[in-house]
Amino acid sequence: MRxxxxxxxxxxxxFVPGTTGLDVFxxxxxxxxxxxxxxxxxxxxxxxxxxxxxxxxxxxTLSAAGHAGGPVVDDAYEHLAHRFLAxxxxxxxSIDGIYLQMHGAMATTRRDDPEGELxxxxxxxxxxxxxIATSLDLHCHFTDRMAANVNVAVGFRTCPHTDTFETxxxxxxxxxxxxxxxxxxxxxxxHRKIGLMTSSEAHDTTFGPLTSLQARARELExxxxxxxxxxxxxxxxxxxxxxxxxxxxxxxxxxxxxxDIADRLxxxxxxxxxxxxxxxxxxxxxxxxxxxxxxxxxxxxxVVVADxxxxxxxxxAGDSTALLxxxxxxxxxxxxxxxxxxxxxxxxAMDAGVGATVxxxxxxxxxxxxxxxxxxxxxxxxLHTPQPGEPAELGRAAVLTILNTTVIATEHKADGRKLDxxxxxxxxxTDYQLxxxxxxxxxxxxxxPIASEVYDLDTTGPCDSDLPRLPFERITRPLWPFDxxxxxxxx
Length: 491
What we know:
This protein has 491 residues and is α/β, with parallel strands linked by helices. The chain is built from 14 helices and 17 strands. It has helices spanning 22-28, 34-38, 42-53, 74-91, 114-126, 144-149, 164-179, 209-221, 255-271, 283-296, 322-330, 343-352, 420-423, 444-447, and strands at residues 2-9, 30-32, 57-65, 97-101, 132-136, 152-155, 188-193, 226-232, 246-251, 303-306, 336-341, 357-362, 374-384, 397-402, 405-410, 434-437, 453-456. The strands form 3 sheets. The chain has an 8-stranded mixed β-sheet. Strand 4, helix 5 (114-126) and strand 5 (132-136) form a beta-alpha-beta unit. Helix 3 packs parallel to helix 7 (164-179), helix 4 (74-91) runs parallel beside helix 5 and helix 8 (209-221) runs antiparallel to helix 9. The protein is globular. The model has no long low-confidence stretch (mean pLDDT 96).
């Protein structure tokens, strides 16, 4: 059996400035042909492994990924989609199934549901009978078009997303089951969209309400004929019509059975809505905690604080200096470590050289609707220019010392969920009293193991956890929590 594989992935944030062009996809990865297999990662790596175990021949086409950010420039999307669809057209008579590695929360400058449209176009090329399976992010905005055109949809079960590999494995194994007749003759996917939106911190599956709800989904998945059940908590910072959580069920039998299960799970997700509120910590309280731990529990690890409102993995630019501004304003001597995206600061540091002390306006140059540059006096501790063979997606970087705080400034935004965003520049987070992650929940997988205590900071920005504070204009109302009196989960 021959299975075509590919996909186009992006996650939109409607409140960040600018758009996502083709250059962003090319910087983060546009692969074709065998390169997809050779450099497979995340869900695709799991799918490749499962295909090998099941004796499937893979037909790699196009795989494109762009870092989360503003809407994709429509011409860039059309360019990628046209290439992908042309490859599928060429292979359609020689393939037995399709696996699509997708995210599910893309939007372009002219399209609100480009993934649903892409699924529809693929279905139009290959016909109604060819089985299609897709893997999707837990923050997928699942739509009617998606449900109508894929046989099996499998979503991440974890946040932080630690099961991406396993998700690809599950999707490919289910597709293989359909191909070898172990399942029914016609698999269906159905969903129930819920009038519910919540910030990503509430989606954490290491603790909190979604832990038990994911366990409940696994119970329901054991029913005869059920292939996969996914909870999609949706990218909360996409301002498009009909957003909301979804309960998605793929079955190999009557889709009515799947809809009954989806509705039952959706009701349970809705009933737990009051538990999704996010509790944040003030900046001064977090800094006080770092001093307390350093004085009373030396060696226990840094206090980790997360500025989720400026989360690059959720689309933000990473140019907030809210925590640093508080430290500078108070002259606090806490040993802190943090990231900021600022190409101008990097250029200033490069011109000054290592050891120089310079006056600069740091951060706030990109997300001007939320942030302002902070005037600081900084000493250039180190400079970094990517060398051949090194990852170059962050561009050049400068390690700056401001009071007792170390700031790593990068030309392009760093992944605030990753310790490597510090360590690649020779800076060890465990050497500090206070370490900042820039992430709305996804940082815990890496940062929590090194931390003495963890806090989510009460800051504002394009990934604000208090969703009604943001300038939503296009969402379909009523929608909780924008309409807190809403008492029906769906229309």
